[in-house]
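Sequence only, no structure available. Ideas?
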Amino acid sequence: IAGPSGAGKDTLIAEARKRLSESYIFPRRVITRPTRSDAELHSFETEEWFQQASAEGRFALSWEAHGLLYGVPRTIDDDLKAGRHVVINVSREVVVTARETYDPARTILVTAPREVLERRLASRGREPPEDIALRLERQKDIPADAIILNDGNLGTALDQFLTALTS
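Reply:
I predicted one. C-alpha cells follow.
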C-alpha cells in the first residue's frame, strides 16, 4: 500500500485488518518515531537499534523518509511461504524494490486531492506548515494495480480498498 502522506492509508489498513480473515497479515512496521495515540500503531526503536537490526538483516524492506527510518520485519517471508497475504504500508520510493523482491506483488495506491491531503496533515499537528508543503510537493509515479481515491467517504474508499486487496 503506498501513497502520499495524509491519503488515509493507515485508516484503510486498520479497517481492513478488522474485516479480513487470518490469511491476511498486517505486520507492524518499525519506525524511529515515538508512538502516539493518534498515529499508526508501530514499533518505536532508536536510530542506533534500527541501524543494527538493518545490518543484521532483520528487515525485509527498509527506507528513510522525512528524517525517519522505516522497516518491515523479515518475518513476512515466513507468512508468505505459509500462503498468507501480507499487507504493508510502504514508501513510494520502495514500491519497485518490493515488487521485484516479492513477485507476485500487488500495489494499491491510496490518494486524495491536494487540499484534502493538506487539511489532514495539518490536523495531525505533527509538523509545521512549511514541512507539510514540502510533503505535498513530493510526488512520485509508481506502478499501481489499483488506485483508491480516499477523498471523503470512508465507506466507499474502504469498499474499493477491500476489493483491491481480495481480488
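The mean pLDDT is 91.
Hope that gets you unstuck.
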